[in-house]
Amino acid sequence: MANIAPRSLEPLHQQVSAIIPTHWYNLHADLPEPVPPHLHPGTQQPVQAQDLAAIFPPHLIEQELNTTDRYIEIPQTVREIYSNWRPAPLIRAGNLERELKTKAHIYLKYEGVSPTGSHKPNSAVAQAYFNSLDGFHTLTTETGAGQWGASLSMACALLGMTAEVWQVRASYESKPYRQMQMRTYGGICHSSPSDKTAAGRAILEQDPDTPGSLGMAISEAVEAAATQEGVNYALGSVLNHVLLHQTVIGQEAMLQLEKAGEANADTIFACAGGGSNLAGLTFPFIGKNLREGTNTRIVACEPAACPSMTRGDYTYDHGDIAGLTPLLKMYSLGKDFVPDPIHAGGLRYHGMAPMVSHAYHQGLLEARAYPQEQTFADGLVVARTEGIIPAPESTHAVAGALDYIRSGEARDGEVIVIGLSGNGVLDLPAYGTALGNDGQ
Ligand SMILES: *Cc1c(COP(=O)(O)O)cnc(C)c1O
Fold it and tell me: Is 301 helix (H, G, I), strand (E, B) or coil?
């Protein structure tokens, strides 16, 4: 088997499309009220850089705690890797407009063109780059359905690092393609709980037949990072620096709308799990609303089975079951909340990113919840009019937009952007289940 070799971080000085942003956008700089800080789980005081140093590299800690710089430069090497699939297309969904008999202009901002089929590589590549720059050779992480584990494995391969992923056992067994994808990229994938960590061994001793959980997998990945030299931990959503990296999506969309002759987006729909694709697409527009008095309306679309914003409390809560992570001020259903098994694995997180929660609390965005039957039915409409099979997560954004248009709320000429965070090609069994036996 080919092993991953260390790789130079020097840029190749390739031509990179001018539509790919040169900087990430930091919404903190434009917010009228500051976001409540993360708290140390022991002292309950705002976290300091040194509290995070056991598992994150200096550059990412600086980004996590940066509340003042509006723009943070994207390293040229990262832009060159982005250019493998970016700019991601903004597609005018004319056929969908005809199907819905609407005079609104519908655009799809489509992140499913990345090598792993979602927006997650936007942050995975950045995180691998800064960890490598700061001298780390391995990144550990947890993954549920496998989108994040696969994206981090790819990013690590491109930057000469190793990814070690703990995947929730139930998904490891029921969704074999993602762990094959991780291993294809040279990543190491364990079924969690595993015998590789003290946390995993303790759980297995108690309950050898456990299906596993994200909370358990986080404990294993964090333990592996904290106890080994040269090894760090990477998170795929929720934290400020992850949301920051995703802002390439919205900045690109702004330029693409302009090129398409549209003055601005009127209404944007994005699905919300931990909040990273929503933030990435919409924070640049929220910043513009705040700075220039524009009026883009943002609708976060979450699953009715895991409604952290529409039904949760705004409170300090842990990010994981074991309570190892900092306390985050967020809309949360509680760290022990276990959602019904829905197909949109990426939307099953109990909390919402602190920056998204704050924006919601301040009235800068709205939130709605949709049941899975409705989201898959609307996902089929997009598949059959535009050819794109949306990821199960992304079908929530589609359901939000279609519900809005069908209700007659949309004006003629209104510019509606739907965030298609990924494609559903590796999730076809979920579509199969939704279709039933007659496939209609
Ligand atoms: C992981 C994932 C999500 C949910 O994560 P966010 O951080 O809320 O964006 C949404 N869509 C896809 C395709 C995903 O893979």
Answer: strand
Angle at 58 between CA 55 and CA 61, to 5 degrees: 75
Cα separations (Å) of 248 from 24, 73, 119, 275, 394?
A: 6, 11, 10, 15, 18
**H-helix or E-strand containing 399?**
helix 395-406
Q: What is the pLDDT of residues 287-342, one digit of tens each?
A: 999 999 999 999 999 999 989 999 999 999 987 766 778 899 999 998 777 777 77
Mean pLDDT of 267-272: 98
Distance 10 CA to ligand 1 centre (A): 30
Q: For residue 439, is pLDDT > 60?
A: no
* Rounded distance from Cα 42 to ligand 1 centre (Å): 30
User: In terms of Cα–Cα distance, which of 38, 30, 22 is closest to 240?
Assistant: 38
Structure tokens at 143: 């993954």
The single-letter code of the amino acid at 93 is: A
How far is 52 from 280, CA to CA, in rounded Å? 23
Atom from ligand 1 closest to the CA of residue 347: 4
Amino acid found at 140? T
Predicted TM-score (pTM) of the model is 0.97
CA of 128 to the centre of ligand 1 (A): 19
CB 281 within 8 A of CB 268: yes
Residue nearest to atom 2 of ligand 1 (CA): 346
Dist. CA 350–CA 342, nearest whole Å: 13
In whole angstroms, give the CA distance from residue 300 to residue 317.
21
Q: Which residues face 162 on adjacent strands?
A: 138
Evaluate if residue 157 carries a pLDDT over 60: yes
Q: Which helix (H) or strand (E) holds 278?
A: helix 276-292
In this structure, the residues whose C-beta lies within 6 A of any atom of ligand 1 are 118, 120, 147, 237, 271-278, 346-347, 391, 393-394, 421-422
Q: Whose CA is nearest to atom 13 of ligand 1?
A: 422
Query: Which amino acid does the sequence have at 207?
Result: D
Q: Atom 5, ligand 1: which residue's CA is nearest?
A: 273
- Angstrom distance (rounded) from CA 26 to CA 30: 8
Atom of ligand 1 nearest to the CA of 422: 13
